[in-house]
Design goal:
Elements (H helix, E strand, L loop, with lengths): L1 H33 L77 E8 L3 E11 L4 E12 L12 E13 L3 E15 L13 H9 L4 E15 L4 E13 L4 E15 L2 E16 L11 E18 L2 E14 L6 E15 L3 E12 L3 H7 L12 E16 L2 E20 L17 E22 L2 E14 L11 E10 L4 E10 L2 E3 L15 E3 L2 E11 L4 E8 L7 E3 L2 E2 L4 E10 L2
Antiparallel strand pairs: 1-2, 1-26, 2-3, 3-4, 4-5, 5-6, 6-7, 7-8, 8-9, 9-10, 10-11, 11-12, 12-13, 13-14, 14-15, 15-16, 16-17, 17-18, 18-19, 19-22, 20-21, 22-23, 23-26, 24-25
């Protein structure tokens, strides 16, 4: 203790001495500042601080004191009482008025509608759609469509009318755990092979040429009966199953049957969803004659394709990848056509900037089952003498970007590289002017030929809502073809363009404009009666524009009238070789919506 007191005293004296020294130094400076003329000389002052800081020892409390009284833990009981006292108030709050919100009147939705339109060229268009709920789950529906024209194309010597009538019926049920429906349909199509070659009959005398043309009956009719159904489950391994049955015939005793079953299964393996699609595709058909009518028995064809396509989806942050593969085995009526195929089935997408920019890519292959029915849908002027076989779509690899440029503007651009074996192409049949020919053998029909083809394609699309009631859509496709054996990609255009504008003029008036362009195509046709020193080359079909417009007036919530104008530029272009289309077309009609 004595030593500690001495150290404290010394520290105090040191601090006091330091303070006195500082004070004297400031005073001397002040004095010097008052009289610069006085010279007091210089002197060195050494300040000695013997202070040595130390850290005192810490003292730790040895134990927690024990409180022995219970008064510290006892809570005071507090009693509250309210003394009622009336207070007079003159405040009278005013009632607020809710601000009204102007609501847009919603159009009433109807389940059924009927449409009827008539136009020049003897055109008639009629549609009737009906659906009705039988109870809370079951429903029934039907659709009738008819589109026809009496023809009258300028410069055509044969009948050019057509009829297309179709009826579809459906019955189904929407259950809590299952949805199903069954379908039945019938379609009748009547077309005419009216496209005679340019200069047809020039090798004959005028009476002979007129007699030959008058003796041709160009009419062909197609009949299609369809049946099928769809089954979907909310839970379970089986997710859905689709069944299609098709019976297709024509006026020349051709017949074709197709059975297509595609069930889909889904189950989890190691927290990943595995989806598996099975394919059972059976095709059987026959033609009465070949093009030269040299056969003595029917020409039969048929294929059975069995396949499985397993795949699973991986989602990681902004990536979504669907990885799979297709395994198919094709069996033809001829044993040498049996073959096993393996196809890629991979798709991927990546959100670069949310929904504003999405990168996507895929590599997909498939065995395309070609049918007489599908060829007629693509070109109704084919001859009933086709050679049918599937197309081996080895791969279709494409990559692109899609997204939004603004909240009301979307875009989609992609580049593709496609390789097909046995790509089906439409090409004009050769002909002669023999009056014993079949009605489709005068250069007025098409055949299907096959070739291995590589296709490079660039596609772009944009859609926009420019303002209230105005929508714009446009897309363009550029293609480049490389063939293995054929000199041209017959009847395939290198450039296609489509655009559409729909706008609401008022609440009652609406209008729309559609413009499309198809580029040049190549075809080839020979008159076998002529001996050529040099065989003619391919024929170029000019590209064409087609401008269409429509105006609609909404008379009431049920009834709307319309005016349609097609081929406004009155171009007599040829969609197929020797087949000019109808010129300027006008149709006036109405649409009526109703409920039962």
């Amino acid at each position: 203790m004595i030593i500690k007191n001495i150290k404290a005293f010394v520290n105090k004296q040191s601090r006091f001495s330091g303070r006195v020294g500082v004070f004297l130094l400031l005073f001397s400076q002040f004095s010097f500042a008052q009289d610069k003329k006085d010279n007091i000389g210089t002197e060195v002052v050494n300040v000695v601080k013997p202070f040595t800081p130390t850290i005192s020892d810490a003292f730790k409390v040895k134990e927690v004191p024990v409180i022995t009284t219970d008064e510290n833990a006892k809570k005071e009981i507090v009693k509250y009482s309210i003394l009622p006292f009336p207070v007079a108030s003159t405040f009278s709050p005013s009632k607020g008025n809710a601000q009204g919100v102007e609501k847009t009147k919603q159009d009433r939705l109807f389940k059924n509608y009927a449409t009827l339109g008539v136009g020049n060229y003897g055109a008639l268009n009629a549609e009737l759609y009906i659906t009705e709920d039988l109870n809370n789950n079951e429903y029934v529906g039907g659709m009738f469509r008819h589109n026809s024209s009496q023809g009258g194309i300028k410069g055509v010597n044969l009948a050019d009318s057509f009829y297309d009538t179709k009826i579809d019926l459906i019955y189904g049920s929407n259950e809590q755990q299952m949805n199903w429906n069954v379908k039945l349909g019938y379609q009748n199509q009547i077309y005419n092979w009216y496209g005679l070659p340019s200069g047809f009959g020039n090798s004959l005398t005028l009476p002979e040429s007129m007699a030959l043309v008058n003796g041709i009956n160009p009419q062909q009719s197609y009949n299609t009966i369809t049946a099928g159904g769809n089954l979907a489950f909310e839970e379970g391994i089986v997710k859905e199953a689709n069944l299609e049955l098709t019976h297709f015939t024509d006026a020349f005793s051709s017949s074709e049957n197709r059975f297509l079953l595609t069930p889909t299964f889904k189950f989890d393996v190691m927290d990943e969803a595995i989806k598996t699609k099975l394919i059972v595709d059976y095709l059987d058909g026959s033609f009465k004659k070949n093009y030269l009518e040299t056969n003595t028995a029917d020409i039969n064809y048929g294929f059975t394709n069995l396949g499985i396509v397993p795949s699973f989806v991986m989602k990681r942050d902004d990536w979504t990848i669907d990885i799979g593969a297709g395994l198919l085995y094709s069996m033809g009526k001829e044993n040498n056509t049996n073959k096993f195929y393996i196809y890629p089935s991979v798709t991927a997408s990546y959100k670069i900037v949310g929904d504003l920019m999405i990168f996507y890519a895929s590599a997909i292959g498939n065995l395309q089952q070609n049918t007489y029915n599908s060829f007629v849908d693509g070109n109704p002027f084919v001859s009933p003498t086709l050679y049918i076989k599937p197309t081996n779509e080895l791969y279709d690899v494409h990559a692109g970007l899609k997204g939004k440029l603004a909240s009301t503007v979307s875009y989609d651009i992609k580049a593709s590289y496609i390789y097909d074996e046995n790509k089906a192409l439409f090409k004009s049949n050769d002909y002669n002017e023999n009056d014993t020919n079949a009605n489709y053998a005068f250069g007025n029909s098409f055949q299907v030929i096959y070739d291995d083809m590589k296709i490079m394609r660039l596609y772009g699309e944009i859609k926009a809502d420019l303002m209230k009631g105005v929508t714009v859509e446009a897309d363009a496709t550029m293609s480049s073809y490389t063939n293995k054996t054929q000199s041209e990609a017959w009847n395939l255009p290198e450039l296609q363009f489509n655009s559409k504008v729909d706008f609401a003029v008022t609440d009652k008036w609406f209008a729309g404009i559609n413009l499309f362009y198809v580029g040049e195509r190549k075809d080839q046709q020979l008159n076998t009666d002529i001996v050529y020193v040099t065989a003619p080359g391919s024929i170029t079909l000019d590209g064409y524009f087609d401008l269409n417009a429509n105006v609609r007036f909404k008379y009431s919530e049920r009834f709307t009238t319309f005016l349609k104008v097609n081929n406004i530029m009155n171009n007599g272009y040829q969609k197929w070789l020797n087949y000019p289309v109808q010129g300027f077309q006008v149709m006036l009609g109405g649409n009526y919506k109703f409920d039962f």
